[in-house]
């Protein structure tokens, strides 16, 4: 909103909005996410809270930063609000009737572009497979086959040109995910069984929802 209003004050410099996807294999605030899913009010962040978070730092896995399709703002306005220049006033700040709905549409478009730039990784792929299984558990062989299915789909029929797919094999992704200590492994005559504990199930929806 402020960016467009600056343009309406007579700014001539071209502005381009860049959608950025930021993903993590481990998010410390995922517990807060689960509380918010149950209706809790979002807590305000504070310096003491950040300092307490430093003590929890451990193996946080990998981070991912992907750039989505840029949005040249002037081009967008020319297409969707052809007469926007009539609202330019270099002296007085104005809020034309089209401003709020246009800002909302731009925000929604940017969110789509951010989602289009999503990054699949070991955690969100394993969580997606285990949450879809009947007992939140699969043998390693079953999980490997399921991840191979996901990888084949994403590599051959990509969701978008901006999304990224890991180059590692399914087996390597499982090994990496197990290092995050989110899953349990039980030995069995049919092989290792990888289990998503019941108390972790809601928390792991955060990772699944990053790509689902």
State the helicity in percent bands.
40-55%
What sort of overall outline do the alpha carbons produce when their principal axes are compared? elongated
Strand order of the largest sheet: 5-7-6
Taken as a percent bin, the fraction of beta residues is 5-15%
Mean pLDDT figure: 87
Strand tally: 7
Biggest sheet statistics: 3 strands, antiparallel
Low-pLDDT stretches: none
Number of helices: 9
- Give the class from helix and strand content and strand pairing: mainly alpha
Top-tier CATH class of the largest domain: Mainly Alpha
Which sequence of SSEs, written as H and E, runs from N to C? HEEHHEEHHHEHHEEH
Sequence-ordered SSE layout with sheet pairings:
Blueprint: H1 2-8, E1 16-17, E2 20-24, H2 30-37, H3 47-54, E3 63-67, E4 71-72, H4 73-80, H5 99-116, H6 122-132, E5 137-139, H7 140-156, H8 170-178, E6 184-186, E7 193-195, H9 198-209
Helix pairs in contact: 2-9, 6-7, 6-9
């Amino acid at each position: 909103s402020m960016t467009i209003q600056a343009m309406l004050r007579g700014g001539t410099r071209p502005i381009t909005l860049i959608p950025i996807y930021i993903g993590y294999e481990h998010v410390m605030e995922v517990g807060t996410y689960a509380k918010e899913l149950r209706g809790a009010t979002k807590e305000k962040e504070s310096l003491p809270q950040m300092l307490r978070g430093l003590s929890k730092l451990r193996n946080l896995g990998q981070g991912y930063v992907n750039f989505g399709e840029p949005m040249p703002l002037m081009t967008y306005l020319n297409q969707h609000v052809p007469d926007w220049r009539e609202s330019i006033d270099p002296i007085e700040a104005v809020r034309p009737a089209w401003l709020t709905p246009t800002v909302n549409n731009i925000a929604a478009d940017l969110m789509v572009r951010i989602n289009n730039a999503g990054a699949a990784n070991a955690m969100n792929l394993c969580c997606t497979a285990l949450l879809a299984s009947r007992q939140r558990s699969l043998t390693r062989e079953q999980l490997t086959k399921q991840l191979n299915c996901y990888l084949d789909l994403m590599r051959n029929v990509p969701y978008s040109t901006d999304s990224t797919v890991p180059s590692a094999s399914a087996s390597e992704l499982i090994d990496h995910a197990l290092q995050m200590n989110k899953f349990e492994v039980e030995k069995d005559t049919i092989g290792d069984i990888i289990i998503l504990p019941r108390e972790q199930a809601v928390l792991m929806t955060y990772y699944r929802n990053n790509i689902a």
